[in-house]
Amino acid sequence: MLTIKDDLRGVDAAAVRGTVDLIHRITETDLARPTPCAGWDLAALLGHMTAQHRGFAAAARGGGGDHAVWEPRAGDSYGEAAEDVLSAFAEEGVLDRPFRMPEIDRPIPGRLAIGFHLVDYVVHGWDVARTIDAAYQPEPAVLAAVLPIVRAVPDGPERLGPQAPFRPALTVPAGADPLTEILLLLGRDPSWPGRNR
Predict the structure, then answer these.
(1) Distance CA 146, CA 70 (A)
(2) Is 17 exposed, middle or buried (0-12, 13-18, 19+ CB in 10 A)?
(3) Rounded to two decimals, what is the model's pTM?
(4) CA of 88: how far to CAs of 50, 102, 149, 155, in Å?
(5) What is the number of alpha carbons within 13 Å of residue 182 lying toward its C-beta?
(6) How confident is the model over 144-168, as a mean pLDDT?
(7) For the packed helices 78-89 and 110-131, what is the interaxial angle rounded to 10 degrees?
(8) Three-state SS annotation for 91-115
(9) How many CB atoms sit inside 10 A of residue 66's CB?
(10) What angle do CA 168, 134, 45 make, to 5 degrees?
(11) Band of the pLDDT at 107, cuts 50, 70, 90?
């Protein structure tokens, strides 16, 4: 399994705060728009993103084994959930604390879980931005931290399953910028909505 030695909390916080800025731009009519996440409109994606913040926050505090903490809650605030997870990640000792997550059958170190969270929010930030036609360019340090993690994500038939978080990798052209490479390696088409909508 991938190992992460760095403290990614600073770049994770930057990525999360970038998504908060995007979420503030969403209008009521945007919620029904399709997203790059197949089968999800923007309301469903926003619910997932909010619930994942709550789940990761619970995992950081020792409660990630309760599947209920990972489920969307009606009326939950994205901004409050984002602040909750960043507060949980800031706790002393969190980097080496064991996190329990529904998709993984054993506890993983906090620094690895935070790396997974970082990848999710860079990619979901792009999903939201594409859905509402907003500009999206995470800081270079954020992308530099995400790229080696994404390169280590296994690409096999498990990505074709209905619950797979990523689709099979697409071909990365020579000279692709970091965000484009990240998206392609995780099965996102940077030209969406072109072929996907």
Answers:
(1) 23
(2) middle
(3) 0.94
(4) 15, 18, 22, 31
(5) 24
(6) 87
(7) 160
(8) CCCHHHCEECCCCCCCCEEHHHHHH
(9) 13
(10) 50
(11) very high
